[in-house]
Amino acid sequence: MGLVTSSASTNNHNLYFSKDELAKILNLYSKGVSSGEWKDYAIDFNKNNAFFYIFKHSLAAPECILNKSLERKKRKIFYNLKSKNQNKKFESLDALISSLNRNIFKLVN
Length: 109
Prior knowledge:
By secondary structure, this protein is α+β, with helices and mostly antiparallel strands. It has one domain. The chain is 30% helix and 32% strand. A five-stranded antiparallel β-sheet has the order 1-2-3-4-5, covered by helices on one side.
């Protein structure tokens, strides 16, 4: 017999998106789906990062990556946006989302 560990104890120290953050990200994602720009997403997390990947096609590389990261030395959370034409660091999720709205959706309108 193998040793079974509780997932609650093994995932205690991972960085996650809060419920409010995830709602904001999914709202942005739904706008992209409605406009036909995005088709799929994925969420990943580890000890120091939480990732939200947005795909134009299910089998393609991510169109953009929203990253919530914890800088241990400063004990501060930052949000990073990586896409084809930018790689920026933000101190708030709202600033990241407004930047993404300006840059991505201006092509659609």
